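Issue 218. Parser rejects a valid record. Input:
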Amino acid sequence: MKGFSLTEKIEAIEAMFHRRVLTPYYRMRFSVVGKRFLVTGRIRVRGKISIGDDVILTQGSALLAWKGGVIKIGNNVFLNWTAVSSTVSVEIGNDVVISAGAVILDHDGYGLDGNPAIERPVKIGNHVWIGERAVILKGVTLGDNSVVGAASVVTHDVEPNTIVAGNPARKIRNTTGYTTCNGLGEVQ
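Output the parser choked on:
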């Protein structure tokens, strides 16, 4: 690696470690894994999880399918330090970017006053961007081409081509006319 700085050499070694050690180790822990899958650090994995093509999971991400829960992740998806917890079903479409610290839950975790926890599936459409520290709660469907603002709490369905933000998340405007990117940051 003559002609490269020390920082560039370290980054190259790190990338090789991710591709040749971490990714194959985690690949065995998923039910189905597509082509060009990459893990960039330690993650938590549990249960029945399907991963599509060109998926990147960064360090600190957690994909936890409890009891009979299922997590399905489409193609060209980037999860950056994201927690997904399912007891029913969480489906993430194609070309989705989920920013750092986001949480997706299809259940309450625990019931109150002796009642069982409420569980409802979550569906995230195609070409969706979920901002940093956003929370997507049980029973929510995010329509295609939607954007969820940073630190938003989504408690109701989001129509396609819509930007939402706030706590609880409210419609800000439509996304019609905006350029979309796939999950790897390539403009389409």
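Fixed in the parser; the record now loads. The CA atoms of residues 22 and 39 lie 6 Å apart.
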